[in-house]
Specification:
It is built from 27 helices and 20 strands. It is an alpha+beta fold. Among the domains are: 144 residues, Penicillin binding protein transpeptidase fold; 225 residues, Beta-lactamase, CATH 3.40.710; 153 residues, no CATH class. About 9% of the residues have low confidence.
């Protein structure tokens, strides 16, 4: 056996006396040391008796309170643990942490680790009661007389100090400095706390506590994490040389890092082995054999998971990021709490659906395609919850930009600054139904051009022939020839074919952009409409309205002006996830719920943690939502803007859908859904590039001088390609709800 369980005495050879001329010096040194020992012993004993000496009065009480508070902190402030994010089945996908720590109990520490640590750090650990007075006095005299600096802190004292540094004062540099200052006062306080701890905990509990707290460098804390990171094993299975290496690290983990400083790490490991021999816990022959072995750590770097959503990988990283963003915003949890709380966060991620979404997005736009992003966000409709099941992008989630990676939350954040295009016509239509100015079968005009009477003050020509009655005028034309539907067109027909002139005229009937903007917020574009026109956070102190006002304020009526008539054509920045949630709201009978990625959260003890989420709302009457769904049900049919994409995958399910393309073809969108699943796809410029986006088919979408992309191209192909594979074979074909006569032919005011 390598470890020696019984005690063996070894002789120690004393040093020979030097020349007589040094005798007086040695005697003087001995005398001074003796005096120092006496003085220090008096100080230390006085310090220990300090709280019970009546003459000390208030100072004694204050000192006792400080010790009690620190002891309570050690008991009440838990150490940082790793938070785990899982998919909807409970399979871990990522870890979030500030300190990589895998807690262990006292039964998980093997003898090799115990004796390696005790031998090098506190040989009399099992003999003292928290403070090694012999070692303390020896170190104090040695340090005060100019000899080699010595430590003398017991493992119990080190446990106290490390807990203060790594837990209690983790984010407090001043507190950390005080916990390490070289002063008698600090040492006395530490000693008193250590003695108090020894009355409350067993030696094995103290040893386990220390080994759970101490740092092993590179965000690795505790023996559980160190065993895994250094040797890809567990504390129970550590060998003697492995234990010796780890025990040696706690003294100076950075200096003895085995990857950066293998020579120093080897020297330190061998010292620990020698100390184990001195402590009668290891045979000399075994120690010599272990010294000849290589360090044996895992190659290159420690084996530990990434500390953030990078660990979720290129596909699930965007979903993990949304989980983090959602919890920080919705629950009021701080990032520090999230990264240290040791939570288990079960997400709503459907890995199969997410994979299909990723494959479809990347099939349309290559992951390394410069300046073009392609995203797909999928949400389950419902009257109680809107669970997000997939968040995908053509870009991989990660930090290697050359490989097409990004950590920008492309599917969820307000990053499509080009806009949604004609998908915003949904809001104008919903507002028209809500205000009773039109129904889905109301006849509409489809002129080639249209001059807004509301937004320009009159005129039949485009541009107006006379001076406008207001300070501005708004003229719009169509992107295609609509003569084929000009006769007998209805709102439903217009939604499927998307003539611009029809919807600006419908916006005119509403009198301003206010009803459409209100409907956009109600149906789901809440963060989008709250952002500024650049897609950023509103800054009330900014000089320009583009930054100081929200989109709702900026595009809405103000100063006698009824708003931007082009709002219905979707030229403002938006979130793809929120656009997908609009379809989910419509298919949920008009019930809006926050698009949630959270299935449940438990704390480090397995107890459920309530997550504060915005309550669901009846955003529009159910009859209106059902009728609007029927109005949007022809986009995938012959003549509809997404027919080619739907037909290309053999789509055969009832659905709602709407395409959108922006001015200059800088972005395009498709939003749609079935009763079981809804979502939105967006293809947009991201990160630069001149001109618009050209679409020459799957895998050949790029930035070009004159764009030709439309919502029915890359975005629709992305949506249908993923949805077909996700739903077929797993979900039955379901019909859309029937329309309500109230909203079919003009509605009611």
């Amino acid at each position: 056996m390598s470890l020696i369980p019984h005690s063996r005495r070894h002789g120690v050879t004393g040093a020979r006396s030097g020349p007589g001329s040094l005798a007086l010096v040695r005697k003087a040194d001995g005398l001074f040391k003796l005096i120092g020992l006496c003085l220090l012993a008096g100080v230390l004993v006085a310090g220990m008796l300090f709280p019970v000496v009546g003459a000390a009065g208030v100072m004694s009480n204050q000192a006792s309170e400080t010790v009690e508070k620190t002891s309570s902190d050690l008991a009440d402030i838990p150490p940082p643990l790793v938070t785990t994010v899982t998919d909807s089945t409970g399979k871990p996908i990522a870890t979030l942490y500030d300190q990589y720590r895998l807690p262990i109990n006292e039964n998980q520490i093997n003898e090799a680790m115990k004796w390696a640590l005790v031998s090098v750090e506190d040989k009399r650990f099992y003999e003292h009661h928290g403070v090694d007075w012999q070692g303390t006095l020896r170190a104090a005299v040695s340090n005060t007389t100019g000899a080699d600096t010595q430590g003398a802190s017991t493992l119990t004292q080190q446990y106290t100090k490390n807990y203060l540094i790594n837990v209690v004062y983790r984010n407090d540099p001043i507190g950390q400095k005080k916990a390490q200052e070289q002063s008698i006062a600090r040492k006395l306080k530490e000693a008193r706390i250590a003695i108090q701890l020894e009355t409350k905990l067993t030696k094995q509990q103290i040893l386990a506590g220390y080994l759970n707290i101490v740092e092993f460098s590179r965000q690795i804390f505790g023996i559980g994490a160190a065993a895994h990171a250094y040797f890809d094993t567990t504390p129970e299975k550590l060998t003697v040389p492995q234990a010796a290496l780890l025990a040696g690290l706690v003294n100076n983990p950075i200096n003895n890092d085995p990857w950066r400083h293998p020579d120093k790490a080897t020297t330190r490991r061998n010292l620990v082995l020698d100390r184990m021999v001195d402590n009668k816990k290891l045979a000399q022959a075994d120690a010599d054999r272990f010294k000849a072995e290589p360090l044996g750590v895992v190659p290159d770097t420690p084996k530990k998971p990434p500390a953030n959503c990078i660990g979720a990988g290129p596909e699930a990283g965007f979903f993990c990021q949304y989980v983090e963003d959602y919890l920080l915003k919705a629950s009021g949890m701080t990032k520090d709490q999230l990264y240290t709380g040791g939570y288990t966060i079960k997400s709503t991620l459907d890995e199969r659906a997410n994979h299909e979404a990723k494959v479809s997005a990347e099939a349309q736009v290559k992951k390394t395609q410069p300046y073009v992003a392609n995203t797909l966000s999928l949400v389950k409709p419902g009257k109680d919850r809107h669970e997000v099941v997939a968040l995908a992008s053509n870009r991989d989630y990660g930090q290697n930009q050359d490989a097409g990676q990004t950590t920008y939350a492309l599917p969820t954040g307000v990053y499509n600054t080009g806009g949604a295009g004609s998908t915003y016509k949904i809001f104008t239509t919903a507002a028209a139904l809500d205000k009773g100015v039109a129904g889905i079968f109301t006849p509409v005009q489809v002129p080639e051009t249209y001059v807004s009477r509301v937004y320009s003050g009159g005129g039949e020509n485009c541009p107006p022939t006379g001076p406008p009655l207001r300070s501005r005028w708004y003229c719009v034309g169509n992107a295609a020839d609509y003569s084929r539907i000009a006769q007998g067109a209805t709102v439903q027909t217009a939604l499927a074919t998307s003539p611009n002139t029809t919807f600006v005229e419908l916006e005119d009937r509403l009198g301003s952009t206010a009803p459409g903007i209100d409907m956009a917020k109600r149906l789901g574009m809440r963060d989008t409409m709250a952002s500024n026109v650049g897609g950023g956070t509103v800054d009330p102190k900014a000089d320009k309205a583009e930054k100081s006002q929200s989109q709702a304020e900026y595009y809405g009526p103000r100063g006698g002006w009824p708003g931007f008539g082009a709002f219905t054509l979707g030229f403002s920045p938006l979130s793809g996830l929120e656009l997908g949630n609009v379809a989910a709201t419509i298919l949920s009978g008009g019930v809006w719920c926050p698009p949630t990625p959270i299935a449940g959260v438990t704390d480090r003890n397995g107890k459920p943690v309530p997550v504060k989420e915005a309550p669901c709302e009846q955003a529009v009457p159910e009859a209106l939502a059902n009728t609007l769904a029927v109005g949007m049900s022809k986009d995938d049919q012959p003549g509809g803007t997404s027919f080619a994409a739907a037909n290309g995958v053999g789509w055969n399910r009832p659905m709602i859908g709407k395409t959108g393309t922006t001015q200059g073809n800088v972005s395009a969108t498709f939003v749609g859904g079935t009763p079981q699943l809804a979502g939105a796809a967006m293809t947009f410029k991201f990160g630069g590039g001149q001109g618009g986006i050209c679409d020459a088919g799957p895998g050949n979408v790029r930035v070009c001088p004159s764009g030709n992309i439309f919502g029915g191209k890359s975005p629709a192909r992305t949506w249908f390609g993923a949805m077909k594979n996700i739903l077929d074979g797993s979900q039955p074909v379901m019909q859309l709800p029937p329309p309500d006569p109230k909203y079919m032919g003009g509605g009611a005011r």
